[in-house]
Amino acid sequence: MKKFLVVAIVVVCCFMMTGCYSVKMNANPNDEIKLISAGANASFKHTQRQWFALWGLVPLTEDGVQKTISNSGLTEVRVSTKYTVVDAFISGVLSIITVGTRTVVLEGNGK
User: Fold this and answer.
1) Vertex 53: Cα angle to 108 and 6 (nearest 5)
2) Any residues with CB less than 8 A from the CB of 105 and at least 6 apart, and which?
3) For residues 65 and 49, what is the distance between their CA atoms, to the nearest angstrom?
4) Which CA distances in Å does 38 have to 4, 24, 61, 79, 107?
5) Is the pLDDT of residue 38 over 80?
6) Where are the domains of the chain?
């Protein structure tokens, strides 16, 4: 019985940490931005954590990618999202109130 309870708790926790997180990656329409490949060097790197409610349906933080691209004067960018150990811990603890996170990494080169 104890083994079944442990398995049930693990399964429920796994389901609570899933979601449909969507991160918008936009640039200013007036800027000419090019994508750089995964292997290319980047002189700029910015990491931010984005927060979501209702298992990813409602973003709680604003999209910082566009502002960071504009403010940094980037002309070449690479954007990736990650689910880090810290994100897993935060989401695991706060999933009971439907809150979770994703890490967004913006890399690029400027003018």
Assistant:
1) 105
2) 45, 46, 47, 79, 80, 81, 82
3) 11
4) 44, 19, 26, 10, 10
5) yes
6) 2-110
The burial of 89, by beta-carbon neighbours within 10 Å (0-12 exposed, 13-18 middle, 19 or more buried), is given as: exposed
pLDDT digits (tens, 9 = 90+) for 13-26: 666 656 666 777 77
The whole-angstrom separation of Cα 90 and Cα 99 is 8
> Tens digit of pLDDT for each residue in 53-111?
887 888 898 877 888 888 888 889 999 889 899 998 998 888 888 888 889 999 999 87
Strand 58-59 versus strand 44-53 pairing type: antiparallel
56 Ramachandran zone, left/alpha/beta (phi>0; psi -120 to 50): left
Instruction: Note the pTM of the prediction, 2 decimals.
Output: 0.76
User: Does residue 55 contact residue 100 with C-beta atoms inside 8 Å?
Assistant: yes
